[in-house]
Amino acid sequence: MCISLGNCFKVEHWRGDLDKTSIFNCLLASKLVKRCIICSWTKPDTRRFKLNVDGSSKGNPDISGGEGILRNDSGDMLFAFTRDYGRHSSLLSEFRALLEGLKVCLSYNIKGILIESDSKCLINMISTGSWPWYLSAIGESIVTLMASIEAVLHHVFRVSNSAADWLANFGVQCLHDQDFSSLEHDHLRSLCAIVKLDTDGVSFIRNRYSSLSFSVPQVM
């Protein structure tokens, strides 16, 4: 007969001693542990630029749009855009937003760009060159443009992509294409505040849950 004493042990009792579980003939289990991660938007290196992009869809598929904001090494906004894509999925919107941002950078002859997105799916697909068939044309265009303007794509948490995220919500409410070269508009006050916080390096806390292994002794 096997008697479990799992309820008698807490995870703290075994933390750091997992290598000793075999001595006691223990079974492994796991528990979700909350970890706090400090996140912030950071300025690009000197004479470099950073493009934050985001795509959104209110119903997936439903009203969708793509948005982006480009800033220099001082954190100043050079331009921002919102695009209305009609009824599409969020993944398609993410791809189109990235492509639009690259095209705008190309039109301004801006190179050496660090691109940030909070879509892991987008970044994984672009990095591996593997995407659904209906995104083939857009995906190939993205890869070509990234090479031509020396762009690098990185993942960030949403709290570090707040400016693009705000534009995403703003864009699907307006339902038409818009371009901005200045933050001096009444309806952009919230975006102006976000850009100021980013430039000042204000940090935010993001809770992340991960699996922590521990041991549950079994008595025969």
TrEMBL record:
Question: Which Gene3D superfamilies does the protein's record reference?
Answer: Ribonuclease H-like superfamily/Ribonuclease H
| Database matches in Pfam families | RVT_3
- Name of this protein: RNase H type-1 domain-containing protein
State the species of origin.
Lithospermum erythrorhizon (Purple gromwell)
A single GO molecular function term of this UniProt record? RNA-DNA hybrid ribonuclease activity
> Can you give the residue ranges of the RNase H type-1 domain?
52-170
